[in-house]
Design goal:
281 residues; alpha+beta; 7-stranded mixed beta sheet; 5-stranded mixed beta sheet; binds D-MYO-inositol-1-phosphate
Length: 281
């Protein structure tokens, strides 16, 4: 059966590749760094330029579609996910990596209809890896199908997580106490790529068993979340319920056994939801 969203997905792949060229080019020059909610919440002109490039190009092709973009929300646009076709854009996921030339940065584009992610595109710009997932039709990296790891034992797993940009002492204590328990299970290892989108692609690729984080935003995870489920993995909330992409909390794992073993170690908290913030926290 013909795919209703094939044209939109093809467009997303093309524009993500073009955006990736802009990111790579910017990495060769000076990067003017600005801050948003705090001194460690960074943004550059390239984030803003790439987001505009993507939004303009999608608007020309699909004028009725809506947008949630990291930098547009930071500039005061609402972060509302309705049932209308909506593009959820992180122009540079891994902005801190980009600023420091730590070589993992991604352009992340998720596309939702009726609040469900229909397709996700994550372009890992420096690795030149194009990850694409289409709901019900699988996940791929540079055309090769992705499949999660079949490991069921957390003690034989690699777990990915991030500290994010929250430095509230209570939140930091909870993040460390959770991490301490996971490290001491013990797991084989803990990693951080510095980009939620790539972390999710690592789960989808079977390179790691799980990723969890509290504090991410919908634009960090919309596209990568579909990569995980289409590669056979699971998404849950950090308390074990259904994942809610606006809640800023996620556990992505190869299977329920591993996800459950992580959830049992977590000392959770609830940052303000994306859809209740006037602008990007
Ligand atoms: C950040 C990255 C990072 C995660 C943060 C995100 P940004 O996104 O995904 O890995 O720890 O929570 O905000 O700001 O680079 O788009």
């Amino acid at each position: 059966m013909a795919d209703q969203w094939q044209n939109a997905m093809d467009h997303a792949v093309a524009i993500a590749r073009k955006a990736g060229e802009v990111v790579r080019e910017a990495l060769r020059g000076d990067r003017k760094v600005m801050t948003k909610s705090s001194s460690i919440d960074l943004v550059t002109q390239t984030d803003q330029k790439v987001e505009q490039l993507i939004i303009q190009s999608v608007k020309e092709r699909f004028p009725a579609h809506r947008f949630i973009g990291e930098e547009s929300v930071a500039a005061g646009e609402p972060c509302d996910l309705t049932d209308q076709p909506t593009w959820i854009i992180d122009p540079i996921d891994g902005t801190t990596n980009f600023v420091h030339a730590f070589p993992f940065v991604a352009v992340s584009i998720g596309f939702c209809v009726d609040k469900k992610v229909e397709f996700g595109v994550v372009y890992s710009c420096l690795e030149d890896k194009m990850f694409v997932a289409r709901r019900g039709r699988g996940a791929f990296c540079n055309g090769e199908p992705l499949k999660v790891s079949d490991q069921e034992d957390i003690k034989r797993s690699i777990v990915v997580t991030e500290f994010g940009s929250n430095r509230d002492p209570d939140a930091v204590d909870r993040i460390f106490s959770s991490l301490r328990k996971i490290v001491c299970l013990p797991v084989h290892g803990v990693r951080s790529a510095g980009t939620a989108a790539i972390n999710l692609c690592l789960v989808a690729s079977g390179s790691v068993e799980a990723y969890y984080e509290i504090g991410i935003h919908v634009w960090d995870v919309a596209a990568g979340s579909l990569m995980v489920t289409e590669a056979g993995g699971v998404l849950l909330d950090v308390e074990g319920g259904d994942v809610d992409l606006m809640s800023r909390r996620i556990v992505a794992a190869n299977n329920r056994a591993v996800a459950g073993q992580i959830i049992r170690q977590l000392n959770v908290f609830s940052p303000p939801r994306d859809d209740t913030l006037p602008s990007h926290e």
